Amino acid sequence: MNQKKNYQARYNALSKEFEEGLRRPLTAKEKNFLKWLVTKERAEHESYYK
After folding, report:
1. Could you give the CA distance from residue 43 to residue 47 in angstroms, rounded to a whole number?
2. How much is the pLDDT for 35?
């Protein structure tokens, strides 16, 4: 469960950084991309430590 919070925090940090850089709210497509990116990082992390 703690791991899930870490990935949610990663998503939140990325989305905030992108919004500040773009100076506008993220579109749904951009949010989906960030979710995909965080999920991909998580899968790579988990497969590395198996």
Report:
1. 6
2. 93
What count of other Cβ atoms lies within 10 Å of the Cβ of residue 42?
A: 15
Cα separation, 30 vs 48, whole angstroms? 27
> Along the 50 residues of the chain, how does pLDDT read in single tens digits?
567 788 899 999 999 999 999 999 999 999 999 999 999 888 777 676 66
Angle between helices 2-22 and 28-48 (to 10 degrees): 140
Q: What is the C-alpha end-to-end distance of the chain, expressed in Å?
A: 18
The structure tokens listed for 16 are 């905030």
Reported for 45-49, long-range contacts at CB under 8 A and 24+ positions apart, including other chains, are: none
